[in-house]
């Protein structure tokens, strides 16, 4: 815990937005510096102008590379583009539109260039492609997700509507880096004035159809009828006006508790490491909702692009794994029109209690590496009914078993909990307590450890033989995995399983940290032993 965790920043400590914007245009990436390369992590390229890892040249190169990839893949429909409330998102939007229009790509943006959440772009792509299979659409979302104010992010969503897999991102990154090395000479770009008058630039109200179509996924009338008192904190993000429209259109007893849009995110308390971060799972950043927990029945938070959710109940911040277990259980029993043979997706960092719930519901578990990109195609093809990451991201099919969004959807993930409470008559905490009475009580933890870019690379070299220990917290190790069992994709680290406990370790795709997830089905004390053994096993493995 940092010395300022949970405290709001003084004015002089906030990000200098003018300087950030200036550096975006002025900094030039160094072609010989690996830290300045285009790198697609779990969900797009992220960086900051402060170290020349997110600049105008990066966005020019990536956008031009996306144009080339579209042509190779015969993607001839429109490209939908959205952005969140980070300061650099606005800069990057202008650059991307100038390149797209210069390349005569039919590009659709929200009216008045307004903020557009990630799930809304996903919905536009899915809706278009379900009705225009011969002229597929794709999209770009400009967001670094919950990252600090000084960061920028740029994410590509191919025709399945979710984050791009390496099949797309590897050639895009390679082409973008080649363009950067050649001084962006291959980039076609208009001026902003020319772009505004381009016949390729189209405006659309994306908010109204998304909000209207929510009724095809959520039983909103049940929520309204229950009188459930709901609080929402958009955390200064793109979801603000959407929540207003949802509350009005469906007559929900819903209050938005923070209406400020501020690219410094000055209203956010410092996170565990003294950074401002819009994390929906952190007890520090979620303080504004936690302070109001006794005034509401159910509280929802989103990150700036609204692909993640955080849930607060009268007992406080609800652990993401507990909440996801609950909504998986509820959905699997309430969605009678879902395809019977479709699986439920979860990442390697998610609780194994999910496995018990999924299998009890008669469905298969589809376990993948971290990253929602592994679920998007399955959701679009109806091979999956639900997909979730432990980092508070989920989406699922509509009431009739059709794809709705194939990216993480903070609206769907939050509202389904409200439906669950309204229909069951239970609080979210009581619903989960009933599950533990049947399936047992898991104890779960996660730690983030500071590392270096070189330290992160060490995880990619790990094999099953890198783990020399035979025991984990007093139990024989049954398996060591470097590939996910669902799709056999490399997990970028390791997962170690024993009878009643496990841990997995992997580097962050966007920050110089690595994460260890660990769980015990025995006791909190045993969980602490799992944590200690996991740290020792990981440290030994990456140093060997």
TrEMBL record:
Example GO biological process: purine ribonucleoside salvage
Keyword tags: Isomerase, Magnesium, Metal-binding, Phosphoprotein
Occurrences of domain Alpha-D-phosphohexomutase C-terminal (ranges): 486-535
Cofactor(s) demanded: Mg(2+)
InterPro entries in alphabetical order: A-D-PHexomutase_a/b/a-I (IPR005844), A-D-PHexomutase_a/b/a-I/II/III (IPR016055), A-D-PHexomutase_a/b/a-II (IPR005845), A-D-PHexomutase_a/b/a-III (IPR005846), A-D-PHexomutase_C (IPR005843), A-D-PHexomutase_C_sf (IPR036900), A-D-PHexomutase_CS (IPR016066), Alpha-D-phosphohexomutase_SF (IPR005841)
Domain Alpha-D-phosphohexomutase alpha/beta/alpha: 39-179, 209-316, 319-436
EC identifiers of the protein: 5.4.2.2
Signal sequence range: none
EC main group: isomerase
GO molecular function: magnesium ion binding; phosphoglucomutase activity; phosphopentomutase activity
Family per record: Belongs to the phosphohexose mutase family.
Official protein name in the record: Alpha-D-glucose phosphate-specific phosphoglucomutase
Species of provenance: Candidatus Avisuccinivibrio stercorigallinarum
């Amino acid at each position: 815990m940092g010395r300022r965790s949970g405290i709001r920043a003084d004015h002089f400590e906030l990000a200098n937005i003018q300087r950030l914007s200036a550096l975006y245009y002025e900094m030039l990436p160094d072609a010989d510096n690996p830290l300045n390369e285009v790198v697609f992590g779990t969900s797009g390229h992220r960086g900051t102008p402060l170290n020349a890892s997110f600049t105008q040249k990066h966005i020019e190169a990536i956008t031009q590379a996306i144009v080339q990839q579209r042509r190779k893949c015969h993607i001839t429909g429109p490209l939908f583009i959205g952005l969140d409330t980070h300061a650099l998102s606005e800069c990057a939007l202008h650059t991307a539109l100038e390149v797209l229009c210069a390349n005569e790509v039919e590009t659709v943006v929200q009216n008045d260039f307004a903020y557009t959440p990630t799930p809304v772009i996903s919905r536009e792509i899915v809706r278009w492609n379900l009705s225009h299979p011969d002229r597929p659409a794709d999209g770009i979302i400009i967001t670094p997700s919950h990252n600090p104010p000084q960061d920028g992010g740029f994410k590509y969503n191919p025709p399945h509507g979710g984050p791009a897999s390496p099949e797309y991102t590897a050639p895009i990154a390679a082409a973008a880096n080649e363009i950067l090395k050649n001084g962006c000479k291959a980039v076609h770009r208009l001026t902003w004035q020319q772009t505004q008058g381009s016949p390729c630039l189209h405006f659309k109200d994306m908010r109204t159809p998304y909000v209207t179509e929510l009724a095809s996924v959520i039983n909103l009338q049940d929520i309204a009828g229950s009188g459930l008192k709901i609080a929402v904190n958009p955390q200064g993000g793109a979801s603000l006006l959407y929540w207003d429209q949802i509350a009005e259109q469906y007559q929900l007893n819903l209050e938005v508790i923070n209406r400020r849009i501020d690219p410094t995110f000055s209203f956010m308390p410092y996170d565990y490491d003294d950074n401002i971060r819009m994390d929906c799972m952190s007890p520090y950043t979620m303080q504004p909702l936690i302070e109001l927990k006794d005034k509401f029945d159910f509280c929802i938070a989103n990150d700036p692009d609204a692909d993640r959710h955080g849930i607060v109940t009268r007992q406080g911040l609800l652990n993401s794994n507990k909440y996801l277990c609950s909504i998986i259980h509820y959905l699997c029993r309430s969605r009678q029109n879902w395809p019977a043979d479709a699986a439920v997706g979860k990442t390697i960092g998610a609780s194994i209690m999910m496995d018990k719930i999924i299998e009890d519901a008669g469905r298969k578990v589809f376990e993948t590496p971290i990253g929602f990109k592994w679920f998007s195609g399955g959701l679009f093809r109806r091979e999956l009914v639900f997909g979730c990451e432990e980092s508070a991201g989920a989406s699922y099919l509509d009431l009739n078993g059709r794809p709705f969004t194939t990216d993480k959807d903070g609206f769907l993930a939050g509202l389904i909990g409200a439906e669950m409470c309204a229909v069951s008559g239970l609080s979210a905490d009581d619903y989960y307590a009933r599950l533990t009475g049947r399936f047992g009580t898991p104890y779960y933890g996660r730690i983030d450890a500071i590392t270096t870019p070189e330290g992160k690379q060490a995880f990619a070299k790990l094999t099953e033989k890198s783990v020399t220990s035979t025991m984990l917290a007093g139990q024989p190790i049954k398996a060591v995995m470097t590939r996910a069992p669902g799709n056999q994709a490399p997990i970028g680290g390791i997962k170690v399983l024993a009878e009643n406990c496990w841990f997995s370790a992997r580097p962050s795709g966007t920050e110089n940290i690595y994460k260890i997830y660990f769980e015990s089905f025995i006791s909190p004390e045993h969980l602490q032993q799992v944590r200690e053994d996991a740290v020792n096993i990981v440290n030994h493995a990456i140093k060997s």
